[in-house]
Amino acid sequence: MKALTFLGANTIKYQEVAKPIIKKPTDVVGKILWTTICGSDLHILKGDVPESIAKANEQKGRGLILGHEGVIKVESVGSAVTKFKQGDVAIVSCISSCGSCYYCKKDLQSHCSNTEGTSGWILGHEIDGTQADYVRIPYADNSLYKAPENVPAESLLMLSDILPTAYEVGVLSGKVKEGDTVAIVGLGPVGLSALLTCKTLKPAKIIAIDMDDARLEVALRLGADEAMNPGKVDAKAQVHALTKSDIRESGVDVAIECVGIPATFEMCQDLIGPGGAIANVGVHGKSVSLKLEELWIKNISISTGLVSAYSTSDLLQKVVSGDLDPSVLATHHFKMSEMEKAYEVFKNAASNKAIKMVIENDN
Ligand SMILES: [Zn+2]
Ligand SMILES: [Zn+2]
């Protein structure tokens, strides 16, 4: 079969590799129908993820197959798999989890103690992933979701990672409630997913903040009430002016950080109002400053996290009922054989106005 392999920092190759087989009774092997590329794949490609470098080095020239998002058609099932059979179409979760360990029982599947790696995120990170003709999914009963008919690939793909990530780590951890005012800082694929999933909880106002006007335009089109570019306006002053009222102090109820740099985390601290919550989704590479001297007296809570994908079924239900339409995030279509080209486009996502790529198997 063909696969997109990671050979080491800044090196990927679309090449012929052996097709995966069932290794454990809880495995499923499926044919990839559609897959996509994530910001995390670019982190790995840059050489920022040591586990993936180690895996690539274990098999020189063959490397590690990237990708943790996709939709498969089940081809073979292990003897202990009960929920899936040959021919089923299923969404691959970015988190593979056993469903029975200490952490899985607490809905912290991201820390599953029984995976083949260091966390629940193993696909395309520590074991071969979804950017290939076929993939092996460990603990398939807990790590795949049956795809309902009539839901397009463009929507199914978003349920692998970006929707549950934005919803769990941003919207649910931030405890967004009906009537809240929410600021979303950073409107890339995950920020836009936070916007879409946040809207299902009916906040009064969503304020989108990004340095890129094109992304702000998309946010407004997808339902943001206000859009601000802090490179052009004083976002802090504008947010406080917008949220002032006779009965309460200014500031947002929830600030969702979807960038992962010190400046945007700092901005969230500047925007938050009394009793508010800062939900950090962005992946940080550096320490940030924490204004505890200002936050404590405002009763601010701060949350962080890696997705556990416990919300995937709920989100799928929202898609089926029409409350949520994530297909709007699909901006580019490629064939699997054009994978290397798709990476080039996604690497320059801003200039290509790329949000998510839909990559279809050629066969
Ligand atoms: Zn991802
Ligand atoms: Zn587990």
Q: Can you give a write-up of this model?
A:
This protein has 363 residues and is α/β, with parallel strands linked by helices. Helices cover 28% and strands 23% of the residues. The protein is built from 13 helices and 16 strands. The strands form three sheets. Strands 3, 5, 6, 7, 8, 15 and 16 form a seven-stranded mixed β-sheet that branches. A six-stranded parallel β-sheet has the order 11-10-9-12-13-14, with helices on both faces. A hairpin with a 2-residue loop joins strand 1 and strand 2. It is globular and about 65 Å long. The N and C termini lie close together (11 Å). 50% of the residues are buried. It binds zinc ion (2 copies). One zinc ion binds next to helix 3.
SSE layout and pairing:
Elements: E1 2-8, E2 11-16, E3 28-35, H1 39-46, H2 50-58, E4 64-65, E5 70-77, E6 89-92, H3 102-105, E7 134-137, H4 140-143, E8 144-146, H5 153-156, H6 162-172, E9 181-185, H7 189-199, E10 205-209, H8 213-221, E11 226-228, H9 235-243, E12 252-257, H10 262-271, E13 272-280, H11 292-295, E14 301-303, H12 312-321, E15 330-335, H13 339-347, E16 356-360
Helix pairs in contact: 6-7
The chain binds zinc ion (ZN) (2 copies).
Domain Alcohol dehydrogenase-like C-terminal: 189-309
GO molecular function: metal ion binding
Family: Belongs to the zinc-containing alcohol dehydrogenase family.
CATH class of the largest domain: Alpha Beta
CATH superfamily of the largest domain: Medium-chain alcohol dehydrogenases, catalytic domain
Rg (C-alpha, Å)? 20 Å
Q: Which range does the strand content fall in?
A: 15-25%
The tally of domains stands at 2
Quote the average pLDDT.
97
Q: Ligands in the structure?
A: zinc ion
Q: What sequence of helices (H) and strands (E) makes up the elements?
A: EEEHHEEEHEHEHHEHEHEHEHEHEHEHE
Largest sheet features: 7 strands, mixed
Based on the coordinates given, report the CATH architecture of the largest domain: Alpha-Beta Complex
Poorly predicted ranges: none
The outline comes out as: globular
Individual helix count? 13
**Percent of residues in helices:** 25-40%
Q: How many runs of DSSP E, i.e. beta strands?
A: 16
CATH topology-level fold name of the largest domain: Quinone Oxidoreductase, Chain A, domain 1
- The end-to-end distance, rounded to whole angstroms, is 11 Å
Structure classification: alpha/beta
